[in-house]
Amino acid sequence: MISTLNSFCKVTRRNIAMKKIHSILIVLGAVLLFVSLSEASYMIRLQWVPQTQFAGYYMAAEKGFYQEVGIDADVRPADPKFKGLLGLLFKKNDFETAWLASGLIMRSNHPRKLVLIAQFFQKPALMLVAKKSSGIKSVRDFRGRTLGVWDGVFSILPRALIKKHTVHRVNIVSQGFTVEPFVKGDIDIASAMRYNEYKQILDAGIKEDELTVFDFSKLGMNLPEDGLYVREKFAEKHPDVCRKVVEATLKGWKYALEHKDETVAHITKIVNQTEFRTTTGKQRWMLDVVGNLIDLNTTVLKKADFDRTANMLKSLKMIRERPAYSVFFRDVMK
C-alpha cells in the first residue's frame, strides 16, 4: 500500500513538473511571437556616407525611437552599386533617402513606382559661390565666366539659374567633388553644399566677407533636398509602418538638434570606424547648417515646391511628364 502510494506521488509530481514546463514553454513562445510581431525589421538606406546630414536617422536608432514604435530599423549608408534610388526599386531596400529632384526623375521615368512619404529638408543646401575679387556680383556677371558643376541632380539648379536669367556664354565645366579648382582660381564660380564644400572653402583661408554667395532659396528657386521614399506598393500595403518610421525619424531629428554635442560625438565615432575620416568640428558645422534646412513641425512637401521642381525638371528635359502631386507625395502623418 505504501509502495503504491509512493509511486502515485512520484507520477503526480512528474506530471505537475511537466505541466509547469509546458506552461513555461507556452509563455516563452508567446513572448517570442509578440517580439517578432512587434518589431518587424526594415532597412533604411541613406544616399551618402555616414555624417550628421542624416543625424535624425542615426539618433532615432541610437536612442531606441524606432523600437519604441515596434520597428527594428537597420540604418545603412549608401550602396555605391545602386545610385539614385535604384536600390529602393531593385535591391528592395524598404526606405531610402534622396533629393526631391531625384525622386521626381525616378517616378517620372521608371516603370517601377516610388512615393515620397516625408520631406525632411525644406530648403536646399546647394549654392553657388564666387570671390568678390572676381567682380561677380549678380547672375548677369556669369557671362564669359567658368562655372563648376557636379553631375546629375546637382547640376539642375545652376543650369536652371542661367536659363532663368538668359545668361549666355557661360563656360560650364565638371568641378569634381573638390573646391581646389575654385580656391586656386581655375574656375570663377563653384558649386558648394553649405554644410560641406562651403566650409572647405573657408578652411582654405578664404573669408566669408570675401565671397559672394548665390543662395537658391533666396533666388526664388527653392528645391528641397533630402526626403524619405518607399515603393508605392509598400506604402499601400504598410501605411502604418511608414507612419511609424517617419514619426520616429522626426523624433530623432528633434533629439539630434536639442543634443548636438551628443549627436556629433556619436556620428563622428561611426564615421571614423569606416574608411572615411572626420572631425567633431566638421560634423558640428554640418549639423548646425542642417538644422536650418529642417522644419521640425512638418514633413509635408509643399505643393509650391513640388510644382517648381517638377516644372524645372521638365524645362530641362530631365522628365517626360510630371506626376500629380497627390500621387507622388503621401502624407503618412495625417
* Subunit organisation of the chains: single chain
Structural shape = globular
Main sheet overview: 5 strands, mixed
Query: Helix tally?
Result: 14
Proportion of strand residues: 15-25%
Distance between the termini: 75 Å
Number of domains: 3
Overview of this structure, please?
With 334 residues, the protein is an alpha/beta fold. It has three domains: 1-38; 42-123 and 225-328, D-Maltodextrin-Binding Protein, domain 2 (3-Layer(aba) Sandwich), CATH 3.40.190.10; 126-219, D-Maltodextrin-Binding Protein, domain 2, CATH 3.40.190. Helix content is 46%, strand content 16%. The protein is built from 14 helices and ten strands. It has helices at 2-38, 55-62, 65-68, 86-91, 100-109, 156-164, 180-184, 197-203, 232-237, 239-258, 260-271, 280-291, 303-315, 325-328, and strands at 40-45, 71-76, 95-99, 114-118, 126-131, 146-149, 171-174, 189-193, 211-215, 226-231. Strands 2-1-3-10-4 form a five-stranded mixed sheet. Strands 8-5-9 form a three-stranded antiparallel sheet, with no helix packed on it. Strands 6-7 form a two-stranded parallel sheet. Strand 6, helix 6 (156-164) and strand 7 (171-174) form a beta-alpha-beta unit. The longest helix is centred in the N-terminal third of the chain and has 37 residues, at 2-38. It starts with a helix and ends in a 6-residue tail after the last helix. Residues 1-5 and 23-37 have low confidence and may be disordered.
